[in-house]
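Action item from last week, closing it out:
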Amino acid sequence: MVEKSSKDKLVLGIPKGSLQESTLDLFARAGYNITVSSRSYFPTIDDEQISVMMFRAQEISRYVEDGVIDAGLTGQDWILENGSDVLEIAELVYSKQKLTPVKWVLAVPEESSVQKVQDLEGGIIATELVSVTRQFFADRGVNVKVEFSWGATEIKARLLDAIVDVTETGSSLKANKLRVIETLMTSSTRLIANHDAMTIDWKRQKVENIALLLAGAIAAKEKVGMKMNVARKDLEAVTRLLPAEKSPTVSPLADGQYVAIEVIVPERIERDLVPQLRRAGATGIITYPLNKVIP
């Protein structure tokens, strides 16, 4: 018999493996410090109402559905692969390397004669995403054999007929001289919860709080805060340069001829924007990293 989750703690599952470090960093930015010992599947967290367990992302949706854990972070791909009946609380778009979704693609060697899905009729496909891949080919009326791959899937493309593998940047596919035939799905990380657990008010509120703070940490990760002083005569020229989500905060200074401006901007434009602001009349420009941006 499966031991169900705790009544006095929210039991939270986080992914072990490729997403582990980016997930721990995201929680730290959200204000939760999680400490993982090298051999333990039970990290500690600085919140007395939360208990953390680590599983492979592939398993988490099953354990959430079964009530072994109350909530967890896993990919939409594994929720579909497992056919799990869970509540989706939030989409959290981050992955191992970037703040972008990942893609599951059908790929063949560059030298393969295969040009379209139908060319794989009667072929053998290797993948970790077995159920989704079988459904993909069935929907197109293409008869193939789909075999589970235990990893290092790219090297099997030349042993079998094709692979279905996950990619963030496409660099591994290029390195292995593979060519994408079609994208099966785009997947992002989801915060999911058990149906019964979310009927408990304090657990539901705790999960919603986590969702809000994690989303805020993701929103902040590629942005910076910026402060500067501007003479009123230059205010219009400076504000025209600012790509603020909303109007920048403008505050009067003791010297009535000057104002202070505070704004949040994408980090990628900071290095080009600062010289432009300086030329437009801004002085005392300060930029700083952000932990969370809550809409």
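Closing note: The first strand starts at residue 10 and ends at 16.
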